[in-house]
Amino acid sequence: MAPSATKQRLSQAFDRTILITRARKDLRLCRPHHGQGPRFYSKETFTPEEVYQDPGIPWKEVKIFHGARYRRVRYKEVSQVLWQRGGGRRLLRLFVLAPTPYRKTKAGRRYYRKKAYLLCDDNILAAKELLQAYFDRWQIEINHRDEKSILGVGNAQVWADLSVPRVPALMVATYSLMLLSALETYGFKRTAAYEPLPKWRPNARRPSCQDLVTLLRKQIEAKPFSQGTPTNIVGYPSMVQTAAA
Question: What proportion of the chain, given as a percentage, has pLDDT over 70?
């Protein structure tokens, strides 16, 4: 998210939406002023980097599911903070994440990811839920990619004014329904119900969006919706060739 866009969004509230975004380590943050006078912002300021180095703010630990398993993440939390230039008078919440160790192989050396600084416009929700949503951001990006590249969200040629916002919403809802149906019917893992994997993808543990679309087309071909003898139903090989083109 661009800095200007971040400022614009953190300064206003959205219905049923919580924002959590990366922040710079040198942001000038402060507390609300509690003394006399009309002052709203406290004179004392601090930065996320100073919070990271402050021994008086204790480290907390939470288990986050990331990379196919639960991992322990250390963080510091400061609530009820103000970002005068970007958040206006909205009370924000600062998270400072410690570097997370990882290994490229089981016997390899231990590396550390860089520390991260997060700003959130919610001061009530549990830290575990907010941090889990932050770590799930890559999955959200994958969902957006599947919706655009495989389902073609945004590519529909519509002319009616009402169809412009309704068609993408319908396709996204259909995408969600397809994922939920697959989870309830086949579970989280990839089963024999799906087509064999290609040679370049031998170790996939869960089905992709393309696997689900292929299975859906195969099932429609096997049991069409129309009654009687269909005369104009496109065969499954033709459907695959058309989708590939």
Answer: 85
The whole-angstrom separation of Cα 233 and Cα 243 is: 16
On whether residue 235 sits in a domain, the answer given is yes
Radius of gyration, alpha carbons of the chain: 24
Task: Work out the average pLDDT over 78-102.
Answer: 88
Strands (E), the chain: 20-22, 29-32, 41-46, 60-66, 69-81, 92-97, 101-103, 110-112, 116-120
Closest to 212 in 3D by CA, of 245, 238, 176:
176
Mean pLDDT of 199-222: 86
In a domain, 145, yes or no: no
Cα→Cα distances 25→54, 113, 115, Å: 14, 15, 10
